[in-house]
Amino acid sequence: MQRFLRSIAHWLNSQFLPACVLVVNLAAFAGAQPATDVRVGAFDADAWNGIVFLAQNQLGQNHLGQDQGQPFAFGLRVGSRNGSFLDGHDIYAAVSEVGPHSPDDSYCRMSWRHPPGEARITLEWSRADTNTVVGRLNAAASVQLVLEAYLSHAGVSPEGTFSVSESDHAVLGERFFDGVFGTTLKFLIETDRPVTSAGTYGSLDDIRNSMRASGRLNATGDPSPGAAAIEFSAGESGTGHFVALLGANEAELRAHARDWLATGAIDTLLNNNTEKYAKTRPVVKGLFAGAPDAIGNTMFWNTLHAPAPNLVFPSISRAWAHNFGGWVVGEWDCFFGALLSSLQDKAQTLDGIRGILSAQTSTGVVPNIASGNGITPDRSQPPVGAYVVWKIFQRFKDRDFLVWAYPRLVKWHDWWFRDRGDGQPWRDGNRDGLLEWGSDRGSSETIGRRGSMRQAKWESGMDDSPMYDEATYDARTYTMNLNDVGLNSLYALDAECLAKLAATLGQEDDSRRFSAEYERMKGLIREKLWNEQDGIYENRYWDGRFSPRLSPTNFYPLFAGIATAEQARRMVREHLLNPKEFWGAYVIPTIARNDPAFADQFYWRGSIWGPTNYMVYQGLNRYGFDEEALTFAQKSYELFMDDWKAECHSDENYHAWGGNGGGDTHYTWGALLCLVALEQYIDENPWEHLRFGALNPSADGEFHGALWEAHTYDVMIGPNRTSLMRDGKLCLDADRAIVVRQYQPQAFNVKSEGPVRITTAEYNSGSLQVKIDGKPAGSVAVQQRRATFSVPSGEHAVQLSQ
Description:
The chain starts with a helix and ends with a strand. Helix 6 crosses helix 19. The strands form eleven sheets. Strands 5-6-7-8-15-12-11-10 form an eight-stranded antiparallel beta sheet. Strands 1, 2, 3, 4, 9, 13 and 14 form a seven-stranded antiparallel beta sheet that branches. Strands 16-32-33-34-35-38-41 form a seven-stranded antiparallel beta sheet. By secondary structure, it is α+β, with helices and mostly antiparallel strands. Helix content is 30%, strand content 28%.
């Protein structure tokens, strides 16, 4: 009967239900539920091609009558032998496909190439139910595959044993718990391929050494702590399957595994789930095609587990996590990563922000780094938190999260100017009301030491920028001797966004305070950092000298709304679009092209970075440089896609004179170059709210599945059309390329380069009174929910009323 019920459950799950919904909990057939809060994912930083089960045991009470809740982890990963042997961290450089990875783990696919013959191995897996993962491996018959099982994981003790059964093609792990006697938690991995060798080992390193030394696993079935493995070939079909299960009853686990492997259920589930995921994720067709896929695949293949806050969210990079204790985020990396993950998933987005804000120190510092190895209490990074949280709130409308985040953002914002205890502000070294980057001296442990010019540069996030080559570190104030235009602009923006967040929460006194602070900072930056002779905002030394070294941060006054309209025009025309400084085939370098350091093309010394491009792009939008913004978006997208299409790389940075990638090859915020492109379709920001459309796009395009204000939007753009749909229903349609700002059904601003006919579908019946720029422009009838009116060329405010 149980076998029959299992077969029915498999069929129902694969035919009718989304991957995350099950008619029958298949894990129930493996005995009583042995665990709670079971998290499954590629949480091992060293194993793209692996899966980790994390949970709390629920095996009853211990001898003292206390409920059990001890954490445990079981892991598996795949090694490949094609002459040489490859597994673990070595897979990182061999990854050839960063494929789909649904945030709920219903479908995940990645590939790697095994040198020197470049044989391709593809792993697909799905979380089939609470305690079960099924997978498929594709490889040439000449490649030997090794399923490695292990117990250790960051923050979890590895107490247990493994045994192998070649005849059953299986590995069985057992986990022991304090105060639990006679009962163990079991982990079964089984494959449908004949096993050529197997072994138990003390560690994963022992498995690797055995495969590299002899080309096969040691044939022993004796139970052993640490790790175990089975070796097999995908055979002539090129396909092998496996199943991994948690449970308390070994017999039931083995029966459950046999059902999955014998009935073809794995192929059915994987094939169905890949189609379901493709239909539910955001997609772009035509102009900027593939941008959402690249963002989602990049972000969710970097999802790791942070044990201390017990959160699951994208780390900045698996390679960096390898070096920082299993997980790592940078401050502005993490906030910008939240913008990227928010395109598809709320849970990981909010957990990512919680991950960095939970590392806040008692003084208020949100650290440069939070990781498995610790934090950096001596320094922060660019204050982009309130801006990102504002956008995330507009996307999801989660008030509880905003209530949690807001006081932490306020504490961080206030820290920059707060008295550190001796009358000296933390980051206003010369007390002129403007900020400098710094690093505090002290005795508490930090990552990368503290209290010198090097760490002060790291606080800027632009670690080796030539902007700071001539600056010095003041050991008394703990800061550089340079008022930084980028820092001060972002601090002003932080105040602007905090004012809006405070108003949302009904904190009117706070809102007024932050609004006043924004105006004060705007005035100071205009007064002290604008260089009229050069026509741009510049960093300024304490002795009054302007720094002539220009970088993207000199354009942040556009992002923060500080520049006057005339200043903005000069900054864009004389500097941004100047091919001797920033413009070119690849934009924009992190130091001007005519700066002597541009030739270095290393890291922040001339390379192009996602976050700086993103903030300069937002500045262009804020000041209505729509044609320039579209061109900027096109260049950013093409720069990213060249390496993504060829190598599936989301690069840490890109060389400004050739466009090739630099730094880490799988770094999350490289995908910000794609977000720039997507926000040409639709975006929401604190100064123009819902904005959509592009001015004079070169081709047609469609963006389906954009999420804003808890609604799903579809946007169509092109030379002869702009269209917006909300939750599948038409809102607005135009017969040419336009940009719409401050969109609401009854009022919006529109910009076009010729007369445009606009159709609104926001009203059911009757007639509409149209006003353009406050003046009556006629009445139009609503027929079948549509009313059409004309707007002349240029920029205009449209009002509709009944």
